[in-house]
Each structure stands twice: as structure tokens, then as C-alpha cells.
Amino acid sequence: MTTTLITGIGSLVTNDPAHGTGPLGLLTDAAVVLEDDRIAWVGAADRAPAADTVHDAAGRAALPGFVDSHAHLVFAGDRTAEFNARMSGRSYSAGGIRTTVAATRAASDAELDAGVARLVREALRQGTTTVECKSGYGLTVEDEARALRIAARHTPETTYLGAHVVAPEYADDPAGYVDLVTGPMLDACAPHARWVDVFCERGAFDGDQARAVLAAGVRRGLVPRVHANQLGHGPGVQLAVELGAASADHCTHLDDADVAALAASDTVATLLPGAEFSTRARYPDARRLLDAGATVALSTDCNPGSSFTSSMPFCIAVAVREMGMTPDEAVHAATAGGARALRRTDVGAVTPGARADLVLLDAPSHVHLAYRPGVPLVSAVWRGGVLHG
Ligand SMILES: [Zn+2]
User: How far is the CA of 314 from the centre of ligand 1 (A)?
Assistant: First the structure.
């Protein structure tokens, strides 16, 4: 057993109101004791117990590691030209996914694995200690199963997204593709996945198709989450709530009934401002969801087409500036909100028994994540008790 005392924390976000003020459970002049991969103690620095090693935070702010509950990291290829063209005036359509599908199918296992590892490291440097990872760029039985096997080497939060877009081979037979996704592809993928997801959107899968995909996944023990209401209003959010999905993701185009349904449910509204940023689209209205009482998570949607950022601090800054969130709400959504979206109780909070995931900022307050956008403020990260940085 090894214990580490992190003391001299000027301002600590615990996300546990038992420890401090407000929903963030904010403590000043705080200390945290890590014991192996768990948090053992949280409290006032002048009352901290002794430990094997001591780390002086010198007045810096600390918060739980970010929980990025929506990312697409298993892919190959480059879509710089598409982004460049779009920023020169062309609008986004779901068809761009097929470019990445071709490159991903052509890539070796080692190339795909190295790509995931690089992005997980990149995210870790920016404070992300838990990341979800979807398939969805293979779209064959073998390529989807391969993507999930590779993802599972890097995170337990693996999501089967065979229903990302209709595979090019099935362009004239979308019903046949849904049969594949709910049949042989699901059989091959379910052993490597925790979640099932579907892109419920015009140009991808309609409400009936999405329901079939999610129901088939549930029968195999997977838990649903849904790409819902991103590009326009559709049935995705209502379907997510009806099926008890852990999360409805994007939630950009909502009517009053969608907001009410989310607020009355355990389905988290996961907002992905990187996608709107990178497609020059309208941002989701986080204020409306929060005021209605919905639980909101913030995530990166890291993917090569519509949101190639791995930065949770970036998402926090945009959410505060463009989506009506307070800095406290955005930090909560990027930590505790993400944990809720992944139905995890061991991450997203700094409290005894939680995993030892902690971020130290070169700043006196978590508010600086929005106040100083684009500045690399993360000075140290503990993930499972291991110090990085
Ligand atoms: Zn996505």
C-alpha cells in the first residue's frame, strides 16, 4: 500500500456537497490523500493525515479528472481538406463518415491501436482520466468487432456503433444493413462492448431503425445511448428516454416535449460543443435543459470529421461562452455529468472510495478553465493514483 498526500490545494472541486459548498462541494485550503488507486481522505489541509509521499500543490486548484463520455477514437485517415472546405462555406453532411470508413478498413490493427493510444494520451495531458470509445468506422462484421477489441485495450467504456451510417455496400438496402447490425454484427461485437449506440438522424437511421438497433443491443445485455437531435429535430431524444438510455447525445434541436422528457428521466443530456464549433452550427441550449432540471454532461465527440478535439477544457470554455452555462455548471458537467452519462459512481468526484483521478491546474480556481480559454492550464494529472505530468 502506498499513500500520497496532495496538500496546499487552494481550491478543490469535489462534486460532493458533503465536503464543501454548493453542487461542486468546493473546499479551500484543502488536501487529498490517495491510497494506491483510490481516494482515501479529503478535507482541510491543516487536518490531513500523514502519508508516504507529499505533493505540495502550492495554492493551485484541483478537480476530478474529466470524464469524456462520447468519443470516436478508432479510425484512420485524415479529413483536414474536408474541414478546410467546410470552413470555406460548405455545409456538413453525415456522408463524410464514409471517407473515414474506407481508411479505417485499410489500416492495420497496429495503426488503429497506435491512433487510439495517441488520442488517449493527448486527452490525459488535458485532464481526461475516463474516456468512452465507439466503433462505427468499420461497418462490416469483422471491422466493427476489430474496432471494439482495440478500444477495449484502452477503456472499459466501449460502445458498439455499427449503426453509425449505412455501410456503402448497403446503400440501396438500408433494411438489409439494419438486419446485419442487429444480427451477425451484434453477435461479433457484443462480447467486446458495454454500450449500444445509433446515429438517429436524417441521412443515417430513422426512429424505427434506431429502435430496432437499440432493442437488439439490449437483448444482448448492452445498455443504450443515442446520437439524438444533432442536425435537426427527430425522434432520437424521445426514443432514448423511452428505452431508458444512459444518455442522449448532442441534443441540439429540442422541442419542449424533448426537454421535459429528459428532465423527468435518468437519461443524461450530453452536449458536444466541439461538433457545433467545427461545423459552424448552432450550439445546443444548455441553459434551457439545466433550468428544466435535466442532468447535463459535456463531452468532446472526438472524431476526425465533425469534432477533432480531445480537449475537455476547450468544451468547458465554449459551453460557458456560447451555451449559457456558468463555469461551475460546465465543470460539473465535464466531470460528474460525464460519470452519470456512463453510469459510473467511482469517477467524477473527489471523495473517499472514488478512483484516484485528480487534475491540478496552474491556476487558483477551476473558473480559469473558461476564463483563460486555450491556455494549457493542466499541470499534473493522477489517473488511478499514477501521476502524469
Ligand atoms: Zn458522436
Answer: 17
